[in-house]
Design goal:
- By secondary structure, this protein is of the alpha/beta class.
- The chain is built from 18 helices and 14 strands.
- The strands form three sheets. A six-stranded mixed beta sheet has the order 11-10-9-12-13-14, covered by helices on one side. Strands 2-3-1-4 form a four-stranded antiparallel beta sheet.
- Helix 11 links the parallel strand 9 and strand 10.
- Helix 7 packs across helix 16 and helix 17 runs antiparallel to helix 18.
- The longest helix is centred in the middle third of the chain and has 21 residues.
- The chain is globular.
- The relative contact order is 0.09.
- Its EC number is 1.1.1.38.
- This is Malate dehydrogenase (Oxaloacetate-decarboxylating).
- One of its GO terms (molecular function) is oxidoreductase activity.
- Keywords: Oxidoreductase.
Length: 486
């Protein structure tokens, strides 16, 4: 009954079972779960009498089908009664994951008069006279809109705005936890580019930044470009730029470990959508030796016709040798494979054909492009997007600190220089004396990451003139946000 996927906390269940109270009862339960391919993470006795004991057995499974199989295996044990099964992920989401909390006390009429009418009118008039003061006197200085149309949610595809809301809530929670940024989901019931641009432009006065999330390519490129032209606050598409920053940071340290230079390596990228395109553009900006971009038409090259503008640009700026074959052929002799596409495209035997001391970033979630266990048999370094594998490349390393830095700098836009600075900051947090094949990026819970990224982004904003001067607000003021303890 061993599952093809690896057990994960994302499919954790708690099973309440009643079992005959004998010396081997608990052992039989845990053995059964283990033989079914799940991992027991907790076992709590909730009730007992002279003849039976009731326990809550918590375990990680691989997916919903596997969870059902584990429950069925327990039901088939003699003397065992399964009373209830709880999906711990669904329990966590009950009622949503975020809330609004007031920063000021409203205990009496005096406080109410200052926070609301009549006192608030004076603040409104001050902003009407000097609109830039909204950064200083409202939530705008620390608030980000997390905007989606639900068209490309995680690996689930076009599931719509309502179904995307749990992801956007989670994103907002991460902003607060790791960057001290107040973020709010803005889920739009439209996938029309013009309408999305107009809606975001209209709500922008209430926010200090816009985080575009899970919008399908190539529409996401146009939306981002147009909003950047229209708005005086940063517009950041995390699926593009957050991923690219984290990949560059990880690759910087991976190349240090294997003793190769970026300018000398050949990289194959599977997936030329939003993430893949941003990764390749940032690598090209850093001077990578060569890249082969692979997607549905095959390897992108100059001879292909009827490409969308993004793919056309990639065809003209990558693949120096004009390779036209399949993905397996593309990685033959390559130094680096980066997957942001689909599961199980490659095998361990394919990875064996790569160059000596190869690097594999198989980032499709939850199932990567190649089984990481098989890849590690041949590659020097393997990274995935999974939290249960070494070298997790997770966007939470980037976006909280990037927005913290942009908000603190009162930046009017997000720039390539900020991306490069953020990537270097993430890589440097690990330290050259600490990196090794299983540690090329810091933990997402490393309290040094967000402050380091924020500081790097602030410096980049100042040195490249992307900060705005908002009268009365000192750009060097203390903007520490109490990074969470590790």
């Amino acid at each position: 009954m061993s599952p093809t996927r690896l057990p994960s906390a994302g499919f954790s269940i708690t099973i309440r079972v009643s079992v005959i109270a004998d010396a081997s009862a608990i052992g039989r339960l845990t053995t059964c779960v283990g033989e079914a391919g799940a991992i027991v993470t907790a076992l709590d006795v909730v009730d007992s009498d002279p003849s039976r004991v009731t326990v809550d057995l918590t375990c990680d499974t691989a997916d919903s089908t596997h969870a059902d199989q584990v429950v069925k295996a327990l039901e088939e044990l003699d003397g065992v009664e399964v009373r209830k099964v709880s999906d711990r992920t669904f329990l966590l989401h009950l009622g949503g994951k975020i809330e609004v909390t007031s920063k000021v006390a409203l205990r009496n009429r005096d406080e109410l008069s200052r926070a609301y009418t009549p006192g608030v009118a004076r603040v409104c008039l001050a902003i009407a006279e000097n609109p830039e003061d909204a950064r200083r006197l409202t939530i705008k200085r620390n608030t980000v809109a997390v905007v989606t149309d639900g068209s490309a949610v995680l690996g689930l595809g076009n599931i719509g705005p309502a179904a995307s809301l749990p992801v956007m809530e989670g994103k907002a929670a991460l902003f607060k936890r790791f960057g001290g940024v107040d973020a709010w989901p803005v889920v739009l019931d439209t996938q029309d580019t013009d309408e999305i641009v107009n809606i975001v432009r209209a709500i922008a006065p209430g926010y200090g930044g816009i985080n575009l999330e899970d919008i399908a390519a190539p529409r996401c490129f146009e939306i981002e470009a147009r909003l950047r032209e229209l708005l005086d606050i940063p517009v950041f598409h995390d699926d593009q730029h957050g991923t690219a920053i984290c990949v560059l940071a990880a690759l910087t340290n991976a190349l240090r470990v294997v003793g190769k230079n970026l300018a000398d390596v050949r990289v194959v990228v599977s997936g030329a959508g939003a993430a893949g395109t941003a990764i390749m553009k940032l690598l090209l900006r850093q001077g990578v030796g060569d890249i082969i971009a692979y997607d549905r038409p095959g390897a992108l090259h100059r001879g292909l016709e009827n490409l969308n503008p993004t793919w056309q640009w990639l065809a003209e700026n990558t693949n120096k040798s004009g390779y036209v074959g399949d993905l397996k052929g593309a990685i033959r002799g390559a130094d680096v494979f980066i997957g942001v596409s689909a599961p199980n495209l490659l095998t361990g035997d394919d990875i064996a054909t790569m160059a000596d001391r190869s690097i594999v970033f198989a980032l499709a979630n939850p199932d990567p492009e190649v089984d990481p266990r098989a890849a590690r048999e041949h590659a020097a370094i393997v990274a995935t997007g999974r939290s249960d594998q070494p070298n997790q490349i997770n966007n939470v390393l980037a976006f909280p600190g990037v927005f913290r830095g942009m908000l603190d700098a009162h930046a009017e836009n997000f720039t390539e220089e900020m991306a490069l600075a953020a990537a270097q900051a993430i890589a440097d947090v690990v330290g050259e004396d600490k990196i090794n094949p299983t540690v090329i990026v810091p933990s997402v819970f490393d309290t040094r990451v967000a402050p380091a990224v924020a500081a790097a982004v602030r410096r980049a904003a100042a040195s490249h003139g992307t900060s705005a001067d908002f009268g009365g607000v000192d750009s060097d003021e203390d903007t520490s946000f109490g990074a969470p303890e590790q």
